[in-house]
Design brief:
It is built from 14 helices and no strands. By secondary structure, the chain is mainly alpha-helical. About 80% of the residues lie in helices and about 0% in strands. The chain is globular. Among the domains are: about 45-120, Tetratricopeptide repeat domain (Serine Threonine Protein Phosphatase 5, Tetratricopeptide repeat), CATH 1.25.40.10; about 190-265, Serine Threonine Protein Phosphatase 5, Tetratricopeptide repeat, CATH 1.25.40.10. InterPro entries: TPR-like_helical_dom_sf, TPR_rpt.
Length: about 260
């Protein structure tokens, strides 16, 4: 009859309204950092969604929530479920690759970053991240190839230059590494990047005094030292016999790494 909704249409309208409210509420919960509430709302919303792309979006959000809660296995399951619906979700695949790398699943991380590099061959971020995973796997030739590829398209990429200097450092090519670090310091005298790398170089080449000088300078140049910076200073302190300082820096690095894996801001 005119002016009336059939039962099925009425039911569909209720579901749509409920879904809209749930999606809005989960977004607000994530924004305010109430991740347990966001998880509950997402789990209520997902059974109501049939559209593949919308489900993939909410599954990605659920993965982010689990990541913030440090439930990394659940985060991986959610990201993987999202990618099964849409394999080209770049940010989702990037998030999954980051967890893989952080939890030692390096080959899986390489596969995800390789997929992203295939999708976006000129994207420097994905190629740099893959290079750093290769470094972690001691696959230095492949890391060097990725970094050189970045520099071929962008000769001014300082991150790629820093990465290449790291590869040279870890493969014992200290002179080549030092030249690159000196160049970085000359171009960025007020930033920690070059000093951190050169400190690592001096440590590995048996010059702890020079390493300590550069690591101190690196800390002076940044208001937000990274976990890697604390870890490197811990290694230097241990070599020079300051065990107390080394322990303090390692503890700080561990706390920061845990926060980074969760995606804390």
């Amino acid at each position: 009859m005119g002016g009336r909704l059939h039962a099925q249409e009425y039911s569909t309208e209720i579901v749509a309204d409920s879904l809209t409210r749930l999606v809005q509420a989960q977004s607000e919960a994530i924004d305010r950092g109430d991740y347990p509430e966001a998880e509950k709302l997402l789990r209520q919303a997902l059974p109501l969604i049939r559209d593949k792309n919308a489900r993939a979006m909410l599954l990605t959000n659920l993965g982010t929530v689990y990541q913030r809660l440090a439930q990394l296995d659940q985060a991986l399951l959610s990201y993987s479920a999202a990618l099964a619906l849409n394999e080209d979700l770049a940010s989702t695949r990037d998030s999954r690759a980051m967890i893989y790398a952080a939890t030692g699943k390096m080959q899986q991380a390489v596969l995800d970053y390789s997929y992203l590099c295939q999708l976006y061959p000129l994207n420097e971020i994905y190629r740099y991240k893959r290079a750093m995973v290769y470094v972690s796997m001691k696959r230095y030739a492949e890391a060097e190839a990725d970094l050189c590829s970045i520099l071929e398209h962008n000769t001014g990429s300082l991150k790629a230059s820093e990465g290449l200097a790291l590869v040279y450092t870890l493969t014992g090519q200290y002179d080549r590494a030092e030249r690159l670090y000196n160049d970085l310091i000359e171009k960025l005298p007020g930033q920690s990047l070059g000093y951190e790398g050169r400190a690592r170089l001096f440590l590995l080449s048996g010059k702890p005094g020079f390493a300590l000088r550069d690591i101190d300078k690196a800390f002076e140049c940044t208001d937000q030292p990274s976990a890697a910076l604390y870890r490197l200073r811990a290694d230097i302190c241990q070599i020079i016999g300051d065990e107390k300082a080394a322990h303090a820096d390692r503890s700080m690095a561990e706390r920061m790494t845990s926060a980074q894996i969760r995606g804390d801001r």
